[in-house]
Write a structure and sequence with these properties.
Layout lengths: L4 E7 L12 E7 L7 E10 L4 H4 L20 E8 L9 E4 L6 E5 L3 E4 L16 H14 L6 E5 L4 H12 L3 E6 L2 H9 L5 E4 L5 H8 L4 E6 L3 H8 L2 E9 L18 H6 L3 E4 L9 H13 L7 E5 L7 H6 L6 E5 L6
Length: 340
């Protein structure tokens, strides 16, 4: 086996808020050699998640922060190129938390799964069939519990999670309203993802447009943003509404922001239920969700858009770009690592 270089993105300083390119550095190391029970995965796709902001923050979160000087934590998909594990032969397509690097040395236990959907692009294992699709499936169906005929409102509706939520809601007989930023994304929600209505939160008359789109009330709100968008939705809750708290993308820093309109009165008067969740708490749900998601993708009922960046050089600024709203759909980094 001829060894080539392995480029890695490491965290060099701790950001206060959204991580920027300056908080990372690309280093070059030797491609690792697997020991007993280990494999080397050549990553072909790296994932970029809004949750990465929390993974590098020093403020308490649901996971340990990425250590300074360490490879940036991320999901990745690729193929095994060297193996000392009997269950994971060379050539197997796999996914797992392999990090922002071209080659990953991992124990067999660190592999999340073998990618069996060989009829679908490998990249889908990180998006519509990965954590984003599973998050949408669980959050909407298990927490939101939509019923046919109800109105489901989704924030960041053009994103990897929000777009799946809207389409899954439609598949379950619901009326869907997407909230997104800009006319391009608003049209994407309508034309590609099939929302019944989509509203641009950047529009000067956003409250009026939202009120018109939600004239019959909001039965389920899938919240990816918090902040002013959520404050606006709260005024339209129906009695017995369910609010699914998935993300807080509008909050730039983990320090508590100035309080907006308080939501307690809305929750009380409308007898609503508000629940947050972290999908890593529900690992036993993944396979069930992926079965549904793959079937819907194959049947053309679940559409997706991938925002592809080229090369590991694009990684350091990829999270910041996500929060700048540059992406359409799931943000991914495509690698073309050197051969072994």
């Amino acid at each position: 086996m001829t060894l080539r270089s392995n480029r890695q993105v490491v965290l060099t300083s701790r950001p206060d808020g959204i991580p920027q390119a300056e908080h990372f550095r690309i280093v070059e190391t030797t491609v690792p050699v697997p020991g007993a029970g280990q494999v080397v995965v050549r990553n072909e796709w790296l994932s970029v998640e809004p949750a990465m902001r929390g993974w590098v923050s020093a403020v308490a979160n649901y996971s340990e922060p990425v250590a300074l000087g360490s490879v940036m934590r991320s999901f990745a998909a690729g193929r095994i190129v060297a193996s000392q594990h009997p269950d994971w032969p060379v050539g197997t397509a796999v996914t797992g938390m392999f990090g922002w690097q071209e080659f990953a040395l991992v124990d067999g236990t660190q592999i999340e799964r073998r990618i069996d959907e060989v009829d679908l692009p490998l990249s889908t294992a990180l998006g519509v069939l990965g954590i984003n699709g599973v998050t949408a499936h669980y959050g909407l169906l298990q927490i939101g519990q939509p019923k046919p005929g109800e109105t489901v409102v989704v924030s960041t509706a053009a994103g990897a999670v929000g777009s799946c939520v809207g389409q899954i809601a439609r598949l379950h007989g619901c009326r869907t309203v997407g909230i997104t930023g800009g006319e391009v994304k608003r049209e994407l929600c309508m034309e590609r993802f099939g929302f019944d209505q989509a509203v641009d939160y950047k529009a000067p008359d956003f409250p009026e447009r939202l009120a018109d789109a939600c004239s019959g009330g909001v039965d389920v709100y899938f919240d990816n943003t918090a902040g002013p968008v959520t404050d606006a939705v709260m005024t339209h809750l129906t009695i017995g509404a369910r609010i699914v708290v998935c993300g807080t993308a509008s909050i730039p820093s983990w320090n508590p922001p100035p309080l907006g309109p308080r939501i307690e009165r809305h929750i009380l008067v409308k007898r609503a239920r508000m629940q947050g969740f972290v999908i890593f708490d529900h690992l036993d749900y993944y396979a069930q969700a992926r079965t549904d998601l793959a079937e819907w993708v194959r049947g053309g009922q679940l559409k997706y858009v991938e925002d592809m960046l080229d090369g590991i050089e694009a990684a350091p600024d990829a999270i910041a770009g996500l929060y700048r709203g540059e992406n359409l759909g799931k943000r991914l980094i495509h690698l073309n690592a050197g051969q072994m």
